[in-house]
Structure formats: structure tokens, C-alpha cells
């Protein structure tokens, strides 16, 4: 590609509204532009990177036996109503109506669509298992779209869904997907970890997030310094084997009384230190449960609850407000099955994201929906504590350390969560109708691109890994007005393209300083500078990541290029 024929609008200054390095450089290098909050256009260079990320994902998914489809982004509300997510998903779901006032959602995810597709088509266990994936824009009205592509409101996701007749078959595919994800992120050169992102009650092995280790990550990973253990801290809370002791309350209601407002109160009651306990208030409504958690010496009154009630998300400040709004009582205490989309925040102290379920029975049904409140017990209460640095690792090996991570992928055993309410069944080998057992597997394609951009850069610009650099080679004739330079530049361009290299030729009539600065900024792995020695057929090759520089003759070039 000739630079005069493409569109690479580089910027000298760092845009003021971009606060992380990847976002700054993606804007400065002319890879992306923001349309409005959380919504981006991909310019030619950005599109090429994105496409290469897609290709790696596609290759590994196909190698793992997943087959590509393309599902609609525009989804009728009825599908979401079948599973109840129309009401529980909250404000993140973009909703709209057609000319006949029929309600639709823009796909935030595709479990409903794919389950409805399969239920009409696959009726026999003989056609299972099946694993389908797509790469498509997703729409989520994020409360805080930020860090550029890392948290957008329209973003590209690879999502896969698998369908099985038996839990063993799901286990098998889950492990294959785990390996495929490991391959993908390894090929991308990312420094990542697969972490347990599960409540723990079902073994903690049925839900993994893939985290890229990064200071700007919004998630915290708790990992052992001497074993393979790693978990999302929010989930690590319930994995800790906190000694089940006499310290736990004998009568739960006592702890949950409104007059025990602070963790200090609870600590005094339990005869322990505030750091060692967690105050949990459970509010019950007819059909819902809300849990408020606070840690350490934090005042429970500062806890903010964000709870999805029906289609509405409500921001609340204090338990009293929750009570009033939900017209509920302060109930019991303890970790229980929770409704989806309950997020709990306490200023500066706690950020707990409770994942919807604590347990599932062997049919994959949520305990919470089966027997609400069943798990209200002293034992489970004693298990609930936020993990801290220096704690013994739950697997018994080493101590816990924290690290920041960017969630780039998420794999999940859904069980029959979607197939039961959607009545998506197949006939098993005894001719009985059974709900599909499902798994789902997501990767944030555009987020991955930003995560790579965050990791591969230096003071001058990007240092893209070869596998996703927009072009492999950047030819920079220093002075396009100089005949030998221009000719050698164009000659090399043709030569390298004929050898199937992806080449960008800087044929602009810019000053040398501008050209070099731009070349460093956009960061192709190999730069070939054609300068004063062009008349002797000599060029300079510079490797962007190492800075190594060589002077080679034109004839030597192909042999030398690594
Ligand atoms: P997060 O915790 O960051 O909000 P999530 O858990 O809501 O992400 P999933 O529903 O698990 O996301 O979606 C699968 C993948 O899609 C995530 O692992 C992530 O890589 C990506 N993703 C999710 N939300 C966004 C977003 N707003 N912008 C870009 N990528 C996203
Ligand atoms: Mg999210
Ligand atoms: Mg997440
Ligand atoms: Mg996730």
C-alpha cells in the first residue's frame, strides 16, 4: 500500500481525553477515531490489526472444532423475555422499537438467539455436540465507557456456544476451548493468565476468565505465588477456606439486625477483628434477593447497591433505601444464590460483583431458583470473606498476591440455564426430551487489540508483534524528490510485494523527520530506509522492537530478512 493512497491521519499531540497509553497511541497513530462516547471507527491501519486478531481467533476456533455462523444483531424482545433477561439485564441492554412499536434489543450477547435457533433445528442427541461461533459487533450501554477500545459501547466480540447431550461432553468441549484460548492469547504475545471466575460452590472450575496482566486492568486477580492457583478476587472471596470457627454467629438474625450497622459492630459481636469479617445483609422481596456486602471497618451505610429490578437499574445509597424501594425486610445473613446483575459497591472499600449463582444442581439448575435461601447456614457464612494479600492460597500452596488484569476472554459452563426456560430440548438415546446442556465462550476482539496495543509500545510508538502488525515492512524513501531514492523505494516495494510481504511505502513528500516519527509511531516491525546511498543500491533495515540496524545491498535483502 502506498501511503499517499491510504488514510493514516497521525497526530503530533497526545489527545487530551485519552488517559491510557493504548488509547492515546491508537488515536495518534491514526488507527481509530472516536465517534461518540464508547463508539469508534476503525481506520485502515486499525482495521488491518483487528482483522489479524480475528484471523488468529478464527484459525484456533476452527482447529478446535467450532464452526462459524453470523447471527442477527437486531433481536426481538420476545426472545429476551423468554429467559427473563429483558427485565434483569438492566440499562446495559440497548433497546429500540420498530415502526410498529415492536420492541427489539441490539445484541449485547447471543445466548437467546442461538438457543432459539437450535431448538427448532436439532432434535436428536445424534446431532450433538455442536459448537458454533461468530465474530460480530456487540452493543452494551456501559455506564462508564472508557479507555478507548477497552470498554466500548459498540465493540467486536467473538462468541461461541456449544450444545451437548451430556455433562461429560460439555466438560470435554470446555477443556478444548480452554486450550484454544490459551493458543490464541499465546500467539498474540500477551502476558495472560486463566483465572477462576466462579463462586466456588460448584467446584470453581466451570467458569474461567482470561486476564491480561496490566496496571490499567479493572479487575484484580488473586494468585498464589507458588502454585497455579489464580482467581478473580471477587470470586476468590468465596473460595477462601476461612476457618469455620466459633466466631461465626450462632443465630444469623442477630448479626443482620439493623442496629449492627458497621463491620466494627459485627466484629465485636463475633469477637474478632474487623478485617476478618464481612457484613452481609440480605434483603428479601417476593421474587428477588439483594445482598449487600461490606468489608473491614467500612460503614455498611456507605454501601451502594446497584440492582436490576425489572427493566430498570436503580442506584441506591444505603440499605434503608433498598428496603424502601424494594419494599423488603432485612432478612438473613450469608452467601446465597443471587439474582443476576446484582452489583455491590462500597466507596473505596469493596467492589463485589456477585455472579448470579452460588450453586447448581446436577441438572444445571440454580440452587437459588430451586430452594431460595437454602444456603443460609453458619458454615457458608464462615466461608465468606474477601481474600487478602498474604493469605494462604486456597489450594494450600503458597500465599496470595494481587495483580491487575484486563478481562479479554471468558468461558462458561451454562448448563441448562437457557435451554430450560427456552424449552430447547432434544431427544436422548431413550427417546426422552432433555434440555440441551450448554457452554459459552467469549473473546473481546477489539479489547484484545487494545490490550496488545497497551503491552507493545515504547516512547516513540507501537512495537507491534509481527503477527498483528498492520504491515510487515515499511519502506521509507527519505526524499521522494531524489530520483535514485524514489526509484529504489518503488523497486523494493514491487519486489517485496511479489514475495508476498505486506508492505507500506511512504511515498509522501514529507520531511525526513516527519516520516521517521510517523514510522516509529505506527510501528511496523521492519523499516527499510532508502537514503543517500540509494544510488549505490544500499539501504538501511531497522527492526522496530530491538532497534537493531543493518546496511544491506538490495541484492542481499531477501536473504537477510528474518
Ligand atoms: P467486563 O467485566 O469487562 O464488563 P464482561 O464480563 O461483562 O466484561 P462478557 O459478557 O464476559 O464481558 O463478554 C465476553 C468478552 O467481551 C469479555 O471477556 C471482554 O473481553 C469483552 N467485552 C465485554 N464488554 C466489553 C466492552 N464494553 N468493550 C470491549 N470488550 C468488551
Ligand atoms: Mg460487563
Ligand atoms: Mg467481567
Ligand atoms: Mg465476563
TrEMBL record:
Superkingdom of the source?
Answer: Bacteria
Reaction catalysis annotation: tRNA(Pro) + L-proline + ATP = L-prolyl-tRNA(Pro) + AMP + diphosphate
Q: Which InterPro entries match?
A: aa-tRNA-synt_IIb, aa-tRNA-synth_II, aa-tRNA-synth_II/BPL/LPL, Anticodon-bd, Anticodon-bd_dom_sf, Pro-tRNA-ligase_IIa, Pro-tRNA-synth_IIa_bac-type, Pro-tRNA-Synthase_IIa_type1
Q: What is its EC number?
A: 6.1.1.15
Determine if Magnesium is one of this entry's keywords: no
Top EC group: ligase
UniProt keywords (A-Z) are: Aminoacyl-tRNA synthetase, ATP-binding, Cytoplasm, Ligase, Nucleotide-binding, Protein biosynthesis
User: Quick one: where is this thing mainly located?
Assistant: cytoplasm
Q: Where in the cell is it found?
A: Cytoplasm
- Ranges where the Aminoacyl-transfer RNA synthetases class-II family profile domain occurs: 38-465
Q: Known SUPFAM superfamilies for this protein?
A: Class II aaRS ABD-related, Class II aaRS and biotin synthetases, YbaK/ProRS associated domain
Instruction: Give the protein family.
Output: Belongs to the class-II aminoacyl-tRNA synthetase family. ProS type 1 subfamily.
Q: How does it assemble?
A: Homodimer.
- What name appears for this protein in its UniProt entry? Proline--tRNA ligase
Q: Organism source for this protein?
A: Planococcus chinensis
The organism that produces this protein has a lineage beginning with: Bacteria, Bacillati, Bacillota, Bacilli, Bacillales
Amino acid at each position: 500500500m502506498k501511503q499517499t493512497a491510504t488514510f493514516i491521519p497521525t497526530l503530533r499531540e497526545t489527545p487530551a481525553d485519552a488517559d491510557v497509553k493504548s488509547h492515546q497511541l491508537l488515536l495518534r497513530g491514526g488507527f481509530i477515531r472516536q465517534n461518540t462516547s464508547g463508539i469508534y471507527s476503525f481506520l485502515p491501519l486499525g482495521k488491518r490489526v483487528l482483522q489479524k486478531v480475528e484471523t488468529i481467533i478464527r484459525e484456533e476456533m476452527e482447529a478446535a472444532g467450532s464452526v462459524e455462523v453470523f447471527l442477527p444483531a437486531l433481536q426481538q424482545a420476545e426472545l429476551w423475555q423468554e429467559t427473563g433477561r429483558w427485565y434483569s439485564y438492566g440499562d446495559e441492554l440497548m433497546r429500540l422499537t420498530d415502526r410498529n412499536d415492536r420492541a427489539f434489543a441490539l445484541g449485547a450477547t447471543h445466548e437467546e438467539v442461538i438457543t432459539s435457533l437450535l431448538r427448532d433445528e436439532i432434535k436428536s442427541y445424534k446431532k450433538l455436540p455442536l459448537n458454533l461461533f461468530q465474530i460480530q459487533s456487540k452493543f452494551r450501554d456501559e455506564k462508564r465507557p472508557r479507555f478507548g477500545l477497552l470498554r466500548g459501547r459498540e465493540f467486536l466480540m467473538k462468541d461461541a456456544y456449544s450444545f451437548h447431550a451430556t455433562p461429560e461432553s460439555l466438560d470435554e468441549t470446555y477443556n478444548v476451548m480452554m486450550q484454544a484460548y490459551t493458543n490464541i492469547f499465546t500467539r498474540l504475545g500477551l502476558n495472560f493468565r486463566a483465572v477462576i471466575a466462579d463462586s466456588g460452590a460448584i467446584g470453581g472450575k466451570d467458569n474461567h476468565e482470561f486476564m491480561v496482566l496490566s496496571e490499567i486492568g479493572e479487575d484484580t486477580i488473586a494468585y498464589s505465588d507458588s502454585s497455579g492457583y489464580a482467581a478473580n478476587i471477587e470470586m476468590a472471596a468465596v473460595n477462601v477456606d476461612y476457618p469455620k470457627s466459633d466466631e461465626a454467629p450462632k443465630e444469623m438474625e442477630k448479626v443482620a439486625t439493623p442496629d449492627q450497622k458497621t463491620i466494627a459492630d459485627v466484629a465485636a459481636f463475633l469477637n474478632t477483628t474487623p478485617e476478618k469479617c464481612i457484613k452481609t445483609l440480605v434483603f428479601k422481596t417476593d421474587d428477588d434477593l439483594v445482598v449487600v456486602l461490606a468489608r473491614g471497618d467500612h460503614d455498611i451505610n456507605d454501601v451502594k447497591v446497584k440492582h436490576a429490578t425489572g427493566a430498570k437499574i436503580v442506584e441506591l445509597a444505603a440499605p434503608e433505601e433498598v428496603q424502601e424501594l424494594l419494599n423488603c425486610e432485612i432478612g438473613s445473613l450469608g452467601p446465597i444464590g443471587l439474582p443476576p446483575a446484582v452489583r455491590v459497591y462500597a466507596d473505596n472499600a469493596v467492589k463485589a460483583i456477585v455472579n448470579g449463582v452460588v450453586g447448581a444442581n446436577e441438572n444445571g439448575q440454580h440452587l437459588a431458583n430451586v430452594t431460595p435461601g437454602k444456603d443460609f447456614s453458619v458454615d457458608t457464612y464462615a466461608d465468606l470473606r474477601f481474600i487478602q494479600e498474604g493469605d494462604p492460597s486456597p489450594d494450600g500452596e503458597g500465599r496470595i498476591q494481587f495483580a491487575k488484569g484486563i478481562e479479554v476472554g471468558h468461558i462458561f459452563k451454562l448448563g441448562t440455564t437457557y435451554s430450560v426456560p427456552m424449552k430447547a430440548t432434544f431427544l436422548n438415546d431413550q427417546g426422552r426430551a432433555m434440555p440441551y446442556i450448554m457452554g459459552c465462550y467469549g473473546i473481546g476482539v477489539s479489547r484484545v487489540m487494545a490490550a496488545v496495543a497497551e503491552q507493545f509500545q515504547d516512547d516513540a510508538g507501537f512495537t507491534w508483534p509481527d503477527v498483528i502488525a498492520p504491515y510487515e515492512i515499511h519502506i521509507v524513501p527519505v526524499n521522494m524528490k531524489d530520483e535514485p531514492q524514489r526509484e529504489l523505494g518503488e523497486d523494493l516495494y514491487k519486489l517485496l510485494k511479489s514475495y508476498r510481504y505486506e508492505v507500506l511505502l511512504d511515498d509522501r513528500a514529507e520531511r525526513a523527520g516527519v516520516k521517521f516519527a510517523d514510522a516509529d509511531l505506527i510501528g511496523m516491525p521492519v523499516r527499510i530506509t532508502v537514503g543517500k546511498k540509494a544510488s549505490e543500491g544500499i539501504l538501511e533495515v531497522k527492526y522496530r522492537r530491538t532497534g537493531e540496524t543493518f546496511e544491506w545491498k538490495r541484492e542481499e535483502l531477501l536473504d537477510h530478512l528474518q
